[in-house]
Amino acid sequence: MGLRFKYNLVLVSASLLGIVAAAGASYTLVRESALRDVEREAQLMRANATAVRNYTLAHIEPLLTDDGDILFQPEAVTSFAARTVFEAVTAEFPQYYYKEAALNPTNPEDLPTPAEADIIEQFRENPGLTQLSARIETDAGHLLMMAAPITINNPGCLNCHSSPDVAPPAMVDLYGSVNGFGWQLGETVGAQIITVPRSLIVERAKETALMVTVALGAAFTLVFVWTNILLSRVVIRPVSYLTKMAERVSMGDFSVPEYSRNSRDEISSLAQSFNRMRRSLDRAMGMLDE
Hints:
12% strand
């Protein structure tokens, strides 16, 4: 087993261990970073949905109020406007899903799942709570759910949800007079909920970890090649020459030239010692011949 083989064996083993450790550590760190990125993206989407809700309530709903007794316009409903805009957003972010769940919604499609209902209850029990995150398991897989409370802070919302008597007749005809009423000012009635598959976080972490592994692998390859070149020039060639020189001297051939090396490293010291030994041996053999 040659010196080069031993050196490369140690180098490759240490590098592989380092790459595996770095990839594992980067995966853990990047997964946390990916989770924060997903949460930030969800917060931006929720902020956009909230802005759409506020704009609809302040500017669209008053324009359509006069026609409410004739034709119910869903564009005047804040949740409808937010969902419609979010559908355009999901064209760029198809993994994200937006829902406005309410415990007593006008539209039955807005009824919460048990997990969503639990989040809404937490908001109702803790008025100071502004957002929640939860990991849930569904038939579609593991999901990350991020939610913010829907609280009735604008009296305009009660135009449709206080009682059937004051609600637009067209809305009552469409959805009935049982659900979506009795809301109170300051009450938390539901939650804006954005869900995203946890696999998205894992995929982002894997992609980054793979990039780190490839980069480390490329760096290791460069180090491997460069150190082998240096090993050949600095160690292997001088040692090989000294070995051949020692073999010839051991056979009584003192015609081989001395090895000179302009450096102050261990190889140079070895060469100087060997040259002195060769000269001493040459003189000793000469004395014996006399």
